[in-house]
Amino acid sequence: MPSTTLANSPVFSWLMGYEVKRKKLLAKAPAGPLHDFLSVPLPALDTPIDKVEILAVDFETTGLDAKRDKLLSVGFITLKQQQISLKTSYHQIIKSNAQLEESNVIIHHITDSQKEQGQALSTVVEALLKALAGKVMLVHFARIEKQFLTEACYYLYGMAPVFPMIDTLVLAKRRLDKRDVAYDPSELRLTNLRHKFHLPEHHAHNALNDAIATAELFLAQMSKTNKDGKTTLKEVLL
User: Fold this and answer.
1) pLDDT recorded at residue 118
2) Which domain holds residue 143?
């Protein structure tokens, strides 16, 4: 049984709600990728973070509005025992009929011809859900991944679960807020946070590159906050 303190915590209540919702959706979900994903429970909240399997994920999109814009590409990579597993890396451009704006192409370098040769959204989301089953998602600025993946699941399966996440931006913000000193919000950008931890420059706006960059940043953050190895999943969840 969980301790009284843990049982009364908002995160515990949220995750218990997730487990209830997961089981309810599992009973309704048709056979397939979403059902398989929902079949696997999450690790316990009191699991040491270095024992939790994590999937670093990044999306490139045509814009910031998940209701109107489209997913362009997905990249992800697994962290296990606080190590990045390069053999698990995945990157895929998604095929769609959406016409790309020049301003988008300049940022993510995905052209219309590349997009037309991509894989179907259903194939890419299936690969993501399979890799994510039983893991916690790691992102930088969770709103994009949360909203776009939720919309994709509703579109493909008619339902969407809650996706427990760790957000490196939020972890950095919590640390800065504790100082009670004003700071420039630009300090929370992925590139700037990596620079603060003396991590090398990376080629941004490629989904896999950004997923790896986020994974590296998270490991650097944990090297500061988890020196005693006692940091648990509940302490870093969004």
Assistant:
1) 86
2) 4-236
pTM: 0.89
State how many domains the chain has.
Answer: 1
Residue 134 near residue 111, CB atoms below 8 Å: no
CA 167 to chain centre: 7
75 backbone dihedrals φ, ψ, rounded to 5°: -135, 140
Domain of 231, CATH number, reads 3.30.420.10
Decide if pLDDT at 208 tops 90. Answer: yes
- Give the CA distances from residue 135 to residues 57, 88, 129, in Å, rounded to whole numbers and listed in that order: 11, 13, 10
Predicted confidence (pLDDT) at residue 106 exceeds the cutoff of 50: no
Strands 136-139 and 165-167: parallel
